[in-house]
Structures are given as structure tokens and as C-alpha cells.
């Protein structure tokens, strides 16, 4: 501990008025007057009353309250007022002793105004009669100096010093008394002190002359000295006095008692047994209050006109260790920052013990397990300093017990408790209650909807524990996270700023930071995983068969198809997921409900029986596709199913599911080869006729044009196959509808349908059979562009190639 210790002393007379100058204590201690207030200059007095004060403006020590030396120090020859001067930043301790000088402000006084003495006439000259002493509270030269006796013929005054501050006056018989001449003598005793001017007091002495009792009791010695332990129990024998009287009988029988001059306090603490002269303890003796007692005892015989003999018993008390140490908190700095380094001064403690010797020596210590220690400072002072790290979050307040124990026998102790609070320092970062959060929010939420609430805690206090929440900047689909969500900076509630669409955004992450409001703020963050929950907000969309002519889809089926034949397959898709995307199918209406059956899960419509003669050729079906969401959404399609008679494929082929793509290709090669051989001649004839017609119409290179054939599948077009086939054949798949720019001979194809094209040119001496990629409208347009670049010899500008389709694996015939 950085500190300075010193001592200073002043002397002032008592009874000074308020404001009287004592000394320039700041100047005498070498202190800067301007820093007295800032450094918390203060004085600690040994008395409860504040007799002295310091003007912090000029450092002058002045009298605050009139000092009565006699009241403060009693009859002590020296009187000091002890002051402890404490200054902080840095800590400095000084001791100031103010000597209170006595002034002659008190006159001597007698206990009573009149003294009565009875003296036998037989008293011999030289007989002594103690007189009641006067009391003067002043000390030194102002104390009682002497006595004066008024002029008379029989008595003299003998004044002898009894102690350093008192005189003992005795009336000495100079000439014998004669009661018959003068039975009553009146004297005036004057007590004079040593002051300037002197002060005095008088008492009237009335001496009554008694008839003779010749001998007086005599003590062994005039003054007895006895040493006695303080706190001696009641009844303890102090001394046994012995006085003798040469007279016999009643005149020699002695009775002991307190002298009339014995103090009242002595009578309360001691007793004198009249018959034996034993002096015993009656009250509680306390060395710390009065270390020495003077007992005045007289011995008087029982004879007539008895005269008492007097002696003094001086009782010196021996100090015992009967006072526990006293611990006083002089200065305290609380609260203490939790980052205070070891050695920081917390408090200044003074320890005192009223006992003397070993009983007055005191040792101090602290309770165990505390990050503090005591260091001896100046004389009876100790400083309490830190001795380890402090953590407010673990212990926010310490109750420090200071134990003081003296070295007397038996040892006595006392303790006091000092409450030291620990102030907070921002040494803890916020901590989220969970390392990460997972939340689910249903799509199509309204903007401003609450997503979740994150919570962080900070064990610090006050400002250091105030938390502010914010978003850590990230990007979602190229946009700032702040355009998607917001967080309440006060409570951590997270809100959506837009309505989320599961089909566009299924999940995203939010990083939220919590920062405290401390000086040098601390922060931490957490991750919120947000998952968008799908709603049934998308209805099924029917993708097959495609509706034409408004909301009607047209399909064909062989009229001679067997029971169970696949007539058409309805396919719907739903943009939702899970249960919301599970689509089921239902046949709402049909021209003949008993003719068809619908597979609820696959959407396949099959013949429940064969077509009858009375069954309508055109069957109108209303099919509904409905998802499994809540509430369910649905879509409908109207299918016009036409039963046809003239198809080139056998019934067995119609009732059989198509083989995989590789097997189907082989079957097609064999079938087309057979058809080509059978109708080769007819095809050549028809081609020549058609080319001749084109020449008549003015078209160039008619023999090089490819002639188109209509698609197989209708009775109207089946008879013209031989006339409109070409030498070369082409296979196309996957076309549902011919492009709008196609020639009149093109026809609509169901899913996975196949078309064939045969062309004959003059340059070719044989038929070429070709397999091409699946037919699509884009491929068809590409064919047209290629034909345009090749010139009019291709024939693409006039007509499209005829298409021939085998049975579809899923969609059937159309």
C-alpha cells in the first residue's frame, strides 16, 4: 500500500470559543489545500464529540465546540485530544495530539459549608484533627495550593501535601482547651488555589469542647497501601485495620467506620466491618475506570466524648485481561471493481484494547477462503487489501469477518463484519440458450408473421447485461437476408418480411448476433435454420391427354378391343410435395358409365367390357384429378373417346401391351418390310399418278417429291395407304399434335406414337427403309426447313409426310 504516516502536536487552552484558531494543519503536514476535498481529507477523533474541525478551503484547524478540560480529562495532570487524520489517493495517515492546557476557571470548593468538631478538653497540645479537604478541578499551578486559618488563640493549621494535586489540612491544638472558659470556638478555613488572580473558598469550623476522654485510638500506621486485582469478587478482604486505645472499658472499646470525608463512590465499592476493622469489596472494581482508590477509615472508642483516629488505605488495582479488543472500521471503499488487481486497498481498520500489558497487545486476522488479506499499517491500524481475483458473477458481495484477539491470559477476542460489494466489469460475452435453432414456417405466411424468438443471457449486470439483437449479413438467392426477415433488437423476436413460397424457397439460414451494451461491447451469434412447410396451394395440372378445342381431349379406341384394353391414360402433376402432391383420379361422368373403368392411382382408363352394337361410337368422359392436401384441390378434363373399326393391327396386338422400345423397333422393321413388299406396285403406280398431277399443276421435278401418307388409325384414311405411301419410310415418336404449319396430310399423335414415310425418287432403283429419331413438332419444323433449303424436289413445301402409328404403350390408339 502506498501511504505516508506522521504525527503533529498542538497546544491550546481550554474554554476557547467556536472558531478559535488551533493551527494550519494542512500547511504543517505539507498538504496541498486545493486537494483536501478531492482526497477526502477527514479526521477521526477519539471522542464522540467533535471538538475540532478543519476548514477544507484553507486547511485551518479550528475549535468547533467549547472544550472543558475537567470534563474531558478529569483530574489527570495532562490532557490530550487525539485525532487521526486520514487522506486518500494515495492513503496517508497522520496522528495529531492536541494538548488541552488548563486555565484557572474553577474555584476550590468544600463538600459542605460548615464543619463541626468535638474536642475533649483533655486533648493535649499538639493533638491533630483532620479537616475536610477542598476540591479544585484545575490542575498544575491552578490547582489547590494551600489553606489559611482565621486568627485564634488555641489552634494552628498544619498543611501537608497529600498528592501531586491536593493538600491535607489538619487542625493542631496549640494550647489546651478549657470548656469552662470557652465551650465553643468558631474558625474560618480558607482554601486558596495557585491561579492569577487566585481563587478561594471558605468553610466555617465550629469546635465544641467536650469533657475529657483522655486517650485516643491509635492506628499502626497512618497510611496503608494494598494491591488488589480488578474484578475481585464481592466479599474479598482488602485489609484488616488495627487501632489500639490505652483506655479501659467503654473508653477503650473501638468501633471502625468510614470517615466522614470518604467519597460516596468509595462507600459503594467497599465496606468496613465495625467490630473487626476488616475492609472488604462490595462492588465491581474496574481498573480501566479508576486504577487507585483512597479509603478514609476512622476508629472511635465508646467512651464519653470519644475522639476518632483516622488512617488512609490506598488500594491499587491490578489490571486483568477483562476487555475484548475493539475493531473499528475507519474507512471503506465499496464497491470494488471485479478486475481490481491484488493489493488494492479496500478498507482502513483500527484496533484497540483498554487493557494494558499483554492484554492490550492485539493480533488481527481474516476468515479463511477470502481473496483479501490484512496488512499492518500505522500503530494500531490495519489495511484490508485484495489478495486474489474477484468475480462478481460468482460472488457479488463479501461479508468479511475481521477477528481481533489479544495476547492476555485468558485471551479475549472480538470480531466485526465488513460488507464489501463487487462492482461489475464487462467480462462476459452474451450466450445464447441454444447453439442453434430449427424452426418451421408454413408457406404463404402473411408478412410480419413471427418466425421464432431467440434468447441470449449475459451474467453481467446493469448496462453490461443489456443485449441488442441484430442480423448477420448473408445473402439468399442473391438478396440480402434483411429483405427476408427482421429481428427485434430488444427481445430477439424474428419476423418474416415477405410471404414465402415453398416451391421457390424450401429452407434458409439466419445468423443472429447478440451484443451487450458494455464499454468495449462483447457479442456472440447463433444460427436459425428455417424450413418452409409446404401448403396445398397448387392444384393438379393435367398434362396428358392435352385438351383441344377448348377443354376437350380427343382419343380413339378400336371398337373390337377386348375387355381390359387400355383406352387412354390421364396424367396430372402437382407442384406441391408430399401428401399435397399425391394425385388420385375419379371418373365423374361418362356417356356409358359401365363401359369404362378408371384406375384411381395411375389414371388408366380401360374397357370394362367390349363395345356392343348399341354402344355409341363417341363416348364422352369427365375425369377429375384430385390431390390429397387439406383442403384438396382438383382439375378436370373432358375426353371424347371415338371407337373406330378399320385398324390394320390385329386384335391381339391391340390387347397386348407394347414391348420395350428395342423390341418394338424390330417388330416395326419386319411389319414395314412386309407391307412394303405387298404394296410395292400399288405405291409406284400411285406415286406416278400423283406426280403427274403435280406436273399438270405446274410444280417442278414431280418425281423427286416425297408423297405424304396420312396416319394409320382411321377407316377413312386406311384405304388410301397404298396410294399415298412412298418408297422411303421414316419413324417418329412422342408427337401429340402436328404443328400448325404442317400440310393437310399430317395428323395428331398420342404419346409415344410412331409414324412412317416412304418416298420414291427416279434416282433410286430400290426402296430405302429409314428409321429416324422420335417425331416431335420441333423435329417436324426442322424437316420443313431442311426441305426448303433442298429446293422443290423434296416436296416438303406442298405436303407433309404421311404418318402411320402402331399401338401406344400407355395412351392406346388414337
Side-by-side strand order of the widest sheet: 1-7-6-3
Radius of gyration: 67 Å
How many structural domains? 7
Count, helices: 9
Strand content: 35-45%
Fraction of residues in helices?
under 10%
**How does the major sheet shape up?**
4 strands, mixed
Count of individual beta strands = 51
Description:
There is one protein chain. This protein has 814 residues and is mainly beta. The chain folds into 7 domains: 3-101, Immunoglobulin-like (Sandwich), CATH 2.60.40.60; 114-210, Cadherins (Immunoglobulin-like), CATH 2.60.40.60; 218-318, Immunoglobulin-like; 326-423, Sandwich (Immunoglobulin-like), CATH 2.60.40.60; 431-533, Sandwich (Immunoglobulin-like); 541-645, Immunoglobulin-like, CATH 2.60.40.60; 656-790, no CATH class. The protein is built from 9 helices and 51 strands. The strands form 16 sheets. The chain has a 4-stranded mixed β-sheet, with no helix packed on it. A 4-stranded mixed β-sheet has the order 8-14-13-10, with no helix packed on it. Strands 16-23-22-19 form a 4-stranded mixed β-sheet, with no helix packed on it. The longest helix has 18 residues, at 661-678. It is rod-shaped.
Summarize the structure.
By secondary structure, the chain is mainly beta.
Question: Which tags fit this structure?
Answer:
single chain; 814 residues; mainly beta; Immunoglobulin-like; 7 domains; 4-stranded mixed beta sheet; 9% helix; 38% strand; disordered C terminus
Amino acid at each position: 500500500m502506498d501511504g505516508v504516516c506522521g504525527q503533529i502536536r498542538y497546544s491550546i487552552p481550554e474554554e476557547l470559543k467556536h472558531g478559535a484558531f488551533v493551527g494550519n494543519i494542512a500547511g504543517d503536514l505539507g498538504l496541498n489545500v486545493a486537494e483536501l476535498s478531492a482526497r477526502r481529507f477527514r479526521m477521526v477523533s477519539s471522542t464522540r464529540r467533535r471538538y475540532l474541525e478543519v476548514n477544507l478551503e484553507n486547511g485551518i484547524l479550528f475549535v468547533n465546540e467549547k472544550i472543558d478540560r475537567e470534563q474531558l480529562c478529569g483530574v489527570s495532570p495532562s490532557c490530550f485530544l487525539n485525532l487521526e487524520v486520514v487522506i486518500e489517493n494515495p492513503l496517508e495517515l497522520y496522528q495529531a495530539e492536541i494538548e488541552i492546557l488548563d486555565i484557572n476557571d474553577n474555584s476550590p470548593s468544600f463538600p459542605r459549608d460548615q464543619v463541626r468538631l468535638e474536642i475533649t478538653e483533655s486533648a493535649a497540645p499538639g493533638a491533630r484533627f483532620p479537616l475536610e479537604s477542598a476540591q479544585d478541578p484545575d490542575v498544575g499551578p491552578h490547582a489547590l495550593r494551600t489553606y489559611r486559618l482565621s486568627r485564634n488563640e488555641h489552634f494552628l493549621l498544619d498543611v501537608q501535601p497529600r498528592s501531586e494535586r491536593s493538600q491535607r489540612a489538619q487542625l493542631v491544638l496549640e494550647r489546651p482547651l478549657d470548656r469552662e472558659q470557652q465551650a465553643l470556638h468558631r474558625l474560618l478555613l480558607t482554601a486558596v488555589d495557585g491561579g492569577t488572580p487566585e481563587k478561594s473558598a471558605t468553610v466555617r469550623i465550629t469546635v465544641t469542647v467536650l469533657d475529657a476522654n483522655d486517650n485516643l485510638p491509635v492506628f499502626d500506621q497512618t497510611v496503608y497501601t494494598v494491591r488488589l486485582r480488578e474484578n475481585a469478587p464481592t466479599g474479598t478482604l482488602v485489609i484488616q485495620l488495627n487501632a489500639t486505645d490505652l483506655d479501659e472499658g467503654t473508653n477503650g472499646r473501638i468501633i471502625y467506620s468510614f470517615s466522614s470525608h470518604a467519597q460516596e463512590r468509595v462507600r459503594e465499592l467497599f465496606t468496613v466491618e465495625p467490630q473487626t476493622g476488616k475492609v472488604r469489596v462490595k462492588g465491581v472494581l474496574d481498573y480501566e475506570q479508576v486504577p487507585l482508590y483512597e479509603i478514609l477509615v476512622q476508629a472511635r472508642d465508646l467512651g464519653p466524648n470519644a475522639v476518632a483516629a483516622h488512617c488512609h488505605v490506598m488500594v491499587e488495582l491490578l489490571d486483568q485481561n477483562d476487555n475484548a479488543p475493539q475493531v473499528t472500521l475507519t474507512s471503506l471503499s465499496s464497491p470494488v471493481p471485479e478486475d481490481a488487481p491484488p493489493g488494492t486497498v479496500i478498507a482502513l481498520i483500527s484496533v484497540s484494547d483498554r487493557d494494558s500489558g499483554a492484554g492490550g497487545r492485539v493480533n488481527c486476522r481474516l476468515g479463511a477462503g477470502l481473496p483479501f488479506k490484512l496488512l499492518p499499517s500505522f500503530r494500531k491500524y490495519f489495511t484490508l487489501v485484495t489478495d486474489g481475483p474477484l468475480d462478481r458473477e460468482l460472488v457479488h458481495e463479501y461479508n468479511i469477518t475481521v477477528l481481533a484477539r489479544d495476547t492476555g491470559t485468558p485471551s479475549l477476542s472480538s470480531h466485526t463484519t465488513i460488507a464489501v460489494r463487487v462492482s461489475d466489469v464487462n467480462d462476459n460475452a452474451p450466450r445464447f440458450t441454444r447453439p442453434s435453432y430449427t424452426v418451421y414456417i408454413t408457406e404463404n405466411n402473411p408478412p410480419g408473421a413471427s418466425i421464432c424468438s431467440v434468447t441470449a443471457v449475459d451474467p453481467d449486470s446493469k448496462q453490461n447485461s443489456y443485449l441488442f439483437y441484430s442480423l448477420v449479413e448473408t445473402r439468399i438467392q442473391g438478396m440480402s437476408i434483411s429483405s427476408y426477415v427482421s429481428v427485434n433488437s430488444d427481445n430477439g423476436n424474428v419476423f418474416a418480411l415477405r410471404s414465402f413460397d415453398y416451391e421457390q424457397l424450401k429452407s434458409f439460414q439466419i445468423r443472429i448476433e447478440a451484443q451487450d451494451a458494455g464499454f468495449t461491447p462483447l457479442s456472440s451469434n447463433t444460427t436459425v435454420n428455417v424450413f418452409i412447410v409446404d401448403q396445398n396451394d397448387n392444384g393438379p395440372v393435367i398434362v396428358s391427354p392435352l385438351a383441344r378445342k377448348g377443354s376437350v381431349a380427343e382419343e380413339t379406341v378400336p371398337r373390337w378391343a377386348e375387355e381390359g384394353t387400355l383406352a387412354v391414360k390421364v396424367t396430372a402433376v402437382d407442384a406441391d410435395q408430399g401428401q399435397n402432391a399425391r394425385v388420385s383420379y375419379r371418373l365423374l361422368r361418362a356417356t356409358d358409365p359401365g363401359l369404362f373403368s378408371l384406375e384411381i392411382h395411375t389414371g388408366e382408363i380401360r374397357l370394362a367390357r367390349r363395345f356392343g352394337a348399341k354402344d355409341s361410337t363417341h363416348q364422352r368422359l369427365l375425369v377429375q384429378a384430385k390431390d390429397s392436401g387439406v383442403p384438396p384441390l382438383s382439375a378436370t378434363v373432358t375426353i371424347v373417346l371415338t371407337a373406330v373399326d378399320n385398324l390394320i393391327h390385329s386384335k391381339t396386338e391391340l390387347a397386348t401391351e407394347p414391348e420395350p422400345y428395342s423390341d418394338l423397333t424390330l417388330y416395326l422393321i419386319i411389319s414395314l418390310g412386309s407391307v412394303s413388299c405387298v404394296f410395292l406396285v400399288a405405291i409406284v403406280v400411285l406415286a406416278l399418278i400423283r406426280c403427274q398431277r403435280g406436273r399438270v399443276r405446274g410444280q417442278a421435278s414431280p418425281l423427286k417429291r416425297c408423297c405424304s401418307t396420312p396416319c394409320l388409325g382411321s377407316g377413312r384414311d386406311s384405304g388410301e395407304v397404298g396410294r399415298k405411301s412412298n418408297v422411303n419410310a421414316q419413324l417418329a415418336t412422342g408427337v401429340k399434335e402436328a404443328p400448325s404449319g404442317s400440310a393437310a396430310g399430317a395428323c395428331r399423335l398420342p404419346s409415344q406414337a410412331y409414324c412412317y414415310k416412304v418416298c420414291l425418287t427416279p434416282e433410286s432403283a430400290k426402296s430405302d427403309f429409314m428409321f429416324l429419331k422420335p417425331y416431335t413438332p420441333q423435329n417436324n419444323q426442322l424437316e420443313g426447313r431442311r426441305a426448303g433449303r433442298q429446293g422443290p424436289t423434296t416436296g416438303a413445301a406442298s405436303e407433309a409426310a404421311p404418318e402411320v402409328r402402331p399401338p401406344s404403350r400407355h395412351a392406346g390408339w388414337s
